[in-house]
Specification:
about 325 residues; globular; alpha/beta; two-stranded antiparallel ribbon; 12 helices; single chain; Rossmann fold; Pre-protein croslinking domain of SecA
Length: about 325
C-alpha cells in the first residue's frame, strides 16, 4: 500500500487522526487491555465496535496494547437507509422539535406535540459563563456545596469521562462526598442511579444518566424543591443538553437546572471563531459572563448546522450509490 500515493496518504491521515484527534477518556477508554469506543451521546462503551480502515489498530499501537486482528467491512448501511426500510416509522421523544424539518425531509414523518399529563414545574436558571475551566469548576463546586447544605440531591452532567473525573477532583478539593458514573464505572450504574435522588446526594455522571434515566426522589426532597441538575458543559447539540436537564422535574415534580460554559470548552474551541472568543473575553467583566454564553450559543448553532449538513451529504451519497447500482436490481 505504501507504494500507492492514495493509500499512502490514507494511512498517514489515519495515523494523524489516531495521534491527535482521538483522545483517551473522551473518544475511547482503555480497559482490560482493550480500547473501547465511547459513544458521546450515551456515555457508554460501544460493545464489539471498532474503527475501520486500520484506525482502531493505530489507537491500540498508540496506547501500547496488543493489536487486534485487522477487520474488513463487508457491507455498510447508514442509519437513514436502515430506518427507511420499514413501512411505518414512529417514535416518542421530548427533544424532537429541533429536528422536525430533517425528520420530514429524510423520513417523510411529521412531529406532533403531545401535552404533558402534568404541568412542567422545573426551573431553568440563567446560563453561567466563565473565563476558563478552572473558574467554571470552582463555581460549580461552590454551587454544589450550597445545595448540599440544604439537603438537596445534585446531578452534575459531564460531557466526557475525563470531564467527570475533573468534576470529581473539584468536589474532592472541597470535601464534598459524591459518586461518579461513567463508562469506567458502569458496573455500579444501578446502585448509583438508585441513590442519586436521596437527600444531599451528589452524583457526577456522563450522558449515561442523561438519557432515559428516571431518578426517583423521596417526599422530603420533593417538598424541598426536587432534584438539581448542573450541566457542566454544553454539547454540540442542544437536544443533548435538554435530555440531561429532563432528569429533574419529572412527572410534574419540582426541579431546577442550570448550564455552565467556559471559553475553553470543546464546543467553543471547535465551533467558535477566534474573534468571537476574543470579544467574549473583552466583554465578560462588563456583561458578567453573558458574552461567553452568547459565544457558546453561536458555537452550538454552528455545530448543529454542520452535523445536519453532514447527515444530508451522507444521505445524498447513499442515494447516489443506490441509483448507481440500480442495474443490478433493488438494493433492498
Amino acid at each position: 500500500p505504501w507504494d500507492v500515493a492514495d493509500e499512502r496518504e490514507q494511512i498517514v491521515r489515519q495515523a494523524l487522526t489516531a495521534r491527535h484527534l482521538l483522545l483517551r477518556d473522551e473518544h475511547y477508554l482503555v480497559r482490560e487491555g482493550r480500547a473501547g469506543i465511547i459513544d458521546e451521546f450515551t456515555g457508554r462503551v460501544l460493545p464489539d465496535r471498532t474503527w475501520s480502515d486500520g484506525l482502531h489498530e493505530l489507537i491500540e499501537r498508540k496506547e501500547g496494547l496488543e493489536l487486534s486482528p485487522l477487520r474488513q467491512d463487508n457491507a455498510r448501511m447508514t442509519y437513514q437507509r436502515f430506518a427507511r426500510r420499514y413501512r411505518r416509522l414512529s417514535g416518542l421523544s421530548g427533544t424532537l422539535q429541533e429536528v422536525a424539518a430533517e425528520l420530514s425531509t429524510v423520513y417523510n414523518v411529521r412531529v406532533m406535540r403531545v401535552p404533558t399529563y402534568r404541568p412542567d414545574r422545573k426551573v431553568l436558571r440563567p446560563t453561567a459563563g466563565h473565563i476558563d475551566a478552572d473558574a467554571k469548576w470552582r463555581a460549580i463546586a461552590a454551587r454544589v456545596a450550597d445545595l448540599h447544605r440544604d439537603g438537596l440531591p445534585v446531578l452534575i452532567g459531564a460531557r466526557t469521562l475525563g470531564a467527570s473525573e475533573r468534576a470529581s477532583a473539584a468536589l474532592q478539593a472541597t470535601g464534598l462526598p459524591h459518586a461518579v458514573l461513567n463508562a469506567a464505572q458502569d458496573a455500579a450504574e444501578a446502585a448509583i442511579v438508585a441513590a442519586a435522588g436521596r437527600p444531599g446526594a451528589i452524583t457526577v455522571a456522563t450522558n449515561m444518566a442523561g438519557r432515559g434515566t428516571d431518578i426517583r426522589i423521596d417526599d422530603a426532597v420533593a417538598a424541598a424543591g426536587g432534584l438539581r441538575v448542573i450541566v457542566s458543559e454544553a454539547h454540540e447539540a442542544g437536544r443533548i443538553d435538554r435530555q440531561l436537564i429532563g432528569r429533574c422535574g419529572r412527572q410534574g415534580q419540582k426541579g431546577e437546572a442550570e448550564i455552565h460554559v467556559s471559553l475553553d470548552d470543546a464546543l467553543l474551541l471547535r465551533h467558535s471563531l477566534k474573534s468571537e472568543r476574543l470579544l467574549a473575553v473583552l466583554l465578560s467583566a462588563a456583561t458578567q459572563g453573558r458574552s461567553i454564553v452568547w459565544a457558546a450559543r453561536r458555537a452550538q448553532r454552528r455545530s448543529e448546522r454542520l452535523h445536519t449538513g453532514m447527515r444530508r451529504d451522507m444521505l445524498r451519497a447513499d442515494t447516489w450509490i443506490e441509483d448507481a447500482i440500480a442495474f443490478a436490481g433493488s438494493p433492498e
